[in-house]
Amino acid sequence: MNQIFEFRKELNIKKIILVVVLILLIILGAIFLFSHISNKKEEKIEAEKPNKTFYDENKTISLEFPKTYGFTQYKASNNYLMELRTENNLNIFVSKNDLIENKKLIDIASSDIKTYVSEFKSSSNISEISEFEFNGKTAYTYSLHYLNSKTPYYLQVIWIEAENCYYTLDVEFPLDNLSDYTNIINDITNSFIIY
Known about the structure:
The chain has 195 residues and is an alpha+beta fold. 36% of the residues lie in helices and 35% in strands. It has helices at 2-48, 105-119, 184-191; strands at 51-55, 61-66, 72-74, 80-85, 91-98, 130-134, 137-148, 151-161, 165-174, 193-194.
């Protein structure tokens, strides 16, 4: 009789373990299903947004553009914080430079344009440096054309002074695409955020 009782006790323990395992599997399955559905909803919401926001590695700056530009973010090389490129060779490079004591931003931008002109021997249509306001701060910009492997390019450089540094945004694309990218500079200055 004791053996029958022991056998029944073992069956009950096995049943309890089986039920517990089944309940755990159901709970884990429900959690997986819920997280999968949540991820799909987030992906769908992101896909429906007309713009895409890009951040530097440390999330100290961001740029937001319409997805129609087709930007891809690359691992920033050299001294860049951010590097964005499209298939049509629209490139944006953002760098950060230390403040230079007793030097005005206009002087730094003037020196920068001279450096570009000396680097690109084939430069032309060099603009004057223009001043504009960026988030209550003075900023400067200039543009020029240059040859890159026999392809004429348009380059626009924007200098922005922040509290403890300067940000430089270089925007370049083939000159043939100038009419396609007439709004890019406005899109940049309107969406560039310093955190």
